[in-house]
Amino acid sequence: MKLWTHRHTWIGVFSLILLTGCAKQADLEALQVQIHYLNEELNRVESGVTAASTRVSELATDQERLRPTIQRSQMDVSFRLEEVEREIATLRNQLETSSRRHDTGQRSLQEQLESNQQRTETISGTVAANEKKNQEELTRIQQQLQSITREISALERTLVEVKAESSATAATLAETLTESSKQPAARATATLDKQAGENNYDYIRRLFREEKYTQVRDQYPQILAGAESDNERAGIMYWYGSAVQRLGDERNAILIFEEQAKKYPRHWSTAFAILKQGHAFRALGDTDTAKLFYQRVLSEFPDSDAANYARRALE
């Protein structure tokens, strides 16, 4: 626009010079060169304006063409913005709800913690009391165990002494029995009152049941000498010891039963022989030693009839 103005200005000047007739030839040529330059510049500017107008038109066309897309994009953005706002609101509500739940949960946990702490203190006190009680009970049991151990040791020593005395007396008794068996047969034969078909075991058992305890004691050497087997001898010795015990001679009865148990440990009467040893010690006032013999019956003959009597004696 500015070049167009300059162009018309120079044309005006040139026309004025021509009209006045005062222009020189050189000035005219210079003016023509400038006019030609200005025309070229004007043409270039006009070409640029035309191109710019074309570009503006194209841009306007593109704008119209893209307007629906832009509008849809704007709508999508608006819609998405609304969704984001709704999500933010939802998250804010969830956050507030979670915060309230957290506060409630924290208070509940605090209350549970305080309750658990109280329970822990109570349990700790109970445990401490139980430990103290258990320690006292353990101490008492240990003391009882020590006392029982001392009693067992004393009873074992007594048993050893009794066994030693039993062995010595048994040897003496054996010698006595041997000497008695050497006495004249006429005296022994005169006292026998056996029935027809009655062996020596049945004979001594019948005498015991008839309560002829003195006769059993006096005739024992000959009855034993006439026995035909160890099984019969074991039974004869048992009834002999039982008769001596019935006569009140508990000590000799103990020795007789001990001798029988040593010689015939597998005989049926051995369990009763040991049981009667316990009865003899109890009759002598030695209940501790008596318990040892009852326990011996239970240990060595647990399934025997004598074991039932031993259990009742220990109750």
Helix-strand topology string: HHHHHHHHHH
The total of beta strands comes to 0
Based on CA inertia axes, which overall geometry fits? rod-shaped
Q: How would you characterize the largest beta sheet? A: none
Low-confidence stretches: 168-174, 176-190
Task: Look at the structure and give the mean pLDDT.
Answer: 78
Radius of gyration: 69 Å
The total count of helices amounts to 10
Q: What gap, in angstroms, lies between the N and C termini?
A: 142 Å
**β-sheet strand percentage:** under 5%
Structural class: mainly alpha
Proportion of helical residues = over 70%
Description:
Residues 168-174 and 176-190 have low confidence and may be disordered. The termini are far apart. The chain has helices at residues 2-20, 25-181, 185-191, 200-209, 213-225, 230-246, 250-263, 270-283, 287-300, 305-314. 87% of the residues lie in helices and 0% in strands. The protein is mostly helical and 315 residues long.
Fill in the keyword field for this structure.
315 residues; mainly alpha; 10 helices
Give a short synopsis of this structure.
The chain has 315 residues and is mainly α. The protein has ten helices and no strands.
Chart the SSEs and their pairings.
Blueprint: H1 2-20, H2 25-181, H3 185-191, H4 200-209, H5 213-225, H6 230-246, H7 250-263, H8 270-283, H9 287-300, H10 305-314
